[in-house]
Write a structure and sequence with these properties.
single chain; 430 residues; alpha+beta; Pseudouridine synthase; 4-stranded antiparallel β-sheet; 15 strands; 33% helix; globular
Length: 430
């Protein structure tokens, strides 16, 4: 079995997928230069029935975060946050459309800041919208600082993705603003409490924005109250650990103050890191789109995994479904109940965990709520389109495509632009 390497947390490998599925030259450029050039439309799983206890509202927002939008709905309808339902969280730096549900008997639609939030329609339904209850998302994204004449290269890559599938990697959003959630998760699982605090709060771990320099220096010097005073609003979780340290708590006691939602993000990132390393190994071996002996396939129509010896499918049916993109091979999301693949695939996944520096035994036994599952190695890219040209803002290439739920638009952009070009935070570019 795999064991966590006794190395500094910052020496654990990059958790992102740095391998592209095509050898075609990428375009470079920048995206999300303007909010109105990153458009996201949620594709609903079902339509409201017209009656029921929950008010469904279709909202278009511009430059508004998910947390801010939920807070506005809570205040507007005077309900607890638990009364708000949504299928997924949408980007802040974008114009997005999605449906929210509110458990309320009110029918009056509140007025929002019309420049930022518009209610497109409202209706009623019997049930709350749950996370994941969507077909997918439709995207329209303009890439700037790129030669419009390079559009044929982008189109060729899009066509490759439609034919072979998009590598279903977890993108940098999963690993936190410092790209280090997996390191914090690894420290948590192995009980390296001081290492965790140094990585999370100190100046010498993973790169951090300059605005945090003073708070991190104060932590390193043991000036915990000063670190609290120097911290920004975003450090709400970090302050809980700093307050415990200021009261004389041990590193282990201070780490126990980490909110469960933050710990879960760290453990999710450990899962995602191992998955990405597995996906990279399969891409480099050229078998991402194949079914190896012992692979556990994913049924894209049903949205779940199954065994190859399932009596409903013969070997010829599996081959036909694989070619038609109805099924795909899966990679590991380690946890207590993750279904284990056959020996050949298991060795690939164990070697991926070793290369990621992760101890899957700790994740499987001590991962808490991480039950474990499987994730498809590839997902379909559909209804793609493209145009290019020059406008008052300069040259551009615009991509249009649809992705199923759980897939990242930045995955498509990484294939088209290159993995370094999609990293928007300067201190994380490598």
């Amino acid at each position: 079995m795999t064991e966590l390497r006794p190395v500094k947390l910052e020496d654990l490998p990059d958790p992102r997928l740095l391998v592209r599925s095509t050898n075609d030259e990428s375009l470079g450029g920048r995206f999300r230069v303007h909010n109105d050039e990153f458009l996201v439309e949620e594709i609903s799983l079902f339509e409201p029935s017209g009656e029921g206890e929950h008010l469904y509202v279709r909202i278009q927002k511009n430059g508004v975060s998910h947390r801010d939008m939920v807070g506005r709905l809570v205040r507007a309808f005077d309900v607890p946050e638990s009364a708000i339902g949504y299928a997924g969280m949408k980007d802040r730096r974008a114009i997005t459309q999605q449906t929210f549900s509110i458990h309320t008997d009110k029918n009056d639609i509140p007025k929002f800041d019309e420049e930022k939030i518009s209610v497109l329609w409202a209706d009623r339904h019997q049930h709350k919208i749950r996370r994941g209850q969507l077909q997918g998302n439709r995207f329209s994204i303009r890439i700037r600082e790129v030669d419009p004449l390079a559009a044929p290269r982008a189109w060729k890559i899009l066509q490759h993705l439609e034919q072979h599938g998009l590598p279903n990697a977890y993108m940098s959003q999963r690993f936190g603003y410092r790209l280090n959630n997996h390191r914090l998760g690894a420290a948590w699982l192995s009980g390296r409490w001081l290492d965790l605090l140094d990585e999370w709060l100190g100046p010498d771990g993973s790169p951090a924005p300059p605005s945090e320099s003073q708070a991190r220096a104060d932590y390193a010097a043991g000036r915990f109250q000063q670190a609290i005073a120097a911290s920004g609003r975003e450090w709400w979780a970090e302050r809980r650990a700093l307050e415990a340290l200021a009261e004389g708590a041990s590193p282990a006691r201070a780490c126990s103050e980490v909110p469960s939602v933050i710990r879960q993000l760290w453990l999710d990132s450990v899962q995602a890191t191992i998955f990405n390393h597995t996906l990279a190994a399969r891409l480099q071996a050229g078998n991402m789109s194949q079914l190896l002996e012992g692979d556990i396939p994913w049924d894209h129509g049903r949205g779940r995994w199954f065994r190859q010896d399932d009596q409903e499918r013969s070997a010829p049916m599996l081959a036909e479904d694989l070619a038609a993109f109805r099924i795909s091979a899966t990679g590991p999301l380690h946890g207590r109940r993750m279904p284990a693949p056959g020996s050949e695939v298991q060795e690939i996944e164990q070697e991926a965990a070793r290369s990621a520096g992760m101890d899957v035994k700790l994740l499987d036994s001590d991962g808490g709520s991480r039950r474990g599952s499987r994730r498809p190695l590839r997902v379909p890219v559909s209804n793609s389109g493209m145009d290019s040209g020059t406008d008052e803002r300069g040259g551009y290439v615009r991509l249009i495509f649809e992705l199923p739920r759980g897939a990242y638009a930045t995955g498509v952009l990484s294939e088209v632009m290159g993995s370094n070009a999609v990293e928007e935070r300067g201190w994380l570019r490598s």
